Amino acid sequence: MNKQQALLGKTFSSSYMFAVEEPVVDVSQHPMAMLLEEFEDIYNEPQAGDIRQGIIVDKRGHEILVDIGFKSEGIVSGRELDRLGDEIAELRIGDEVPVFILREDKDGNMLLSIARAKAEEDWKMAEDLLNSQEMFTGIVTGYNRGGAIVRIGRVRGFVPASQLSSESQSLQVTDMEDDDDRWHRLMDTELRVKVIDLDRRRNRLILSERVAMREWRKEQKEKLLQELGEGSVIEGVVSSLADFGAFVNLGGADGLIHLSELSWGRVNHPSEVIKIGQKVKVQVISVDLDRKRIGLSLRRLQPEPWDTVSDKYEVGQVVPCTITKLVNFGAFARLDGDAIEGLIHISELADRRINHPKEVVSEGEAYDLRIIRIDVDKRRMGLSLKQALPAEESVEYDWVPVSPEDAVEVTEIHTPEPVGELA
After folding, report:
1. What is the pLDDT of the chain when averaged over all its residues?
2. What domains can be seen in the chain, in order of their start residue?
3. How far is 165 from 148, CA to CA, in rounded Å?
4. Confidence (pTM)
């Protein structure tokens, strides 16, 4: 029997060429259908702990009536209204809201909670974040000496001090009299976090900024490695210093400025040029996708000092310098106010013969030195200490060169006569 035949109340026999009329039956009045409808009503009856969607039908000073499709409206009142706080003013008649079924009172009214329904939704969101391990950004709404509080909706998440990033750790105040206030600088700041532990029964939600930042930096580094090109200029913040150079945070990924790329002049330690927390513009000089390393340069964004040497200095000029390094064959000196370094050869340190420059000069000492050679092409400058020293005052004598044979006669001529002796 097809649908059309059923609607017409007719059936066609395959053996006979005539139709047989059948009575139309009202299925809704069938005992089994009525039993099924009654079962569905019982099944859909709100149970304590359920979360339903409802429509606000009335709003009074002490209660809110919500239609949840039951025989009567549910009521949100008392302490459950207080839990809504300032949100009450935002609720309007006709708004659809989630409600948590508390219980049925003695008068048959269903007691509801909007705040708890939203909290349950937030717990569900937290569970989803735990399962997906997705990062999210939250605002610090409170703290104690153990760490910071970040909410997921209405649920309080806790970020222990050990799970804060190094940047957040640096904001703690260690000289407070009250140890509970050491994280007050984090208030109202945004933290990128991940859910690492959740226990709904114990109302426990643990978050980690450290784990999230580690993963975020990894993602940012991968992104930067693909986007950065050699020669591009980018701004960053100096994150740490090492003997061999300085690390610069480029926004999630760190690049390295090698010691030789900090300045055109000689640098013994990065602290001579930059400091932690300083904002700097750097040039990308290398991108290693395999080793995931970014090479940076600070000096290449500065003028090359040797390009202007001929305009500023000339042979014979005396300039103030500072001794920067001693070697067996001489001493290097930096021209004050410039990145140019010159060499004082050991023969130009003193008039006398010396075995090592330390007999005359020491690192860090300042001297006026004379420029005795400039080679711009080879980036070399020769300096002299002995030629810059003031000349000793000399006594002029009126004398005539004599031969050795006349020396006795000359001596006798110039020998003074005795004074005070009697003839």
Report:
1. 80
2. 133-214 (2.40.50.140), 229-301 (2.40.50.140), 314-384 (2.40.50.140)
3. 12
4. 0.53
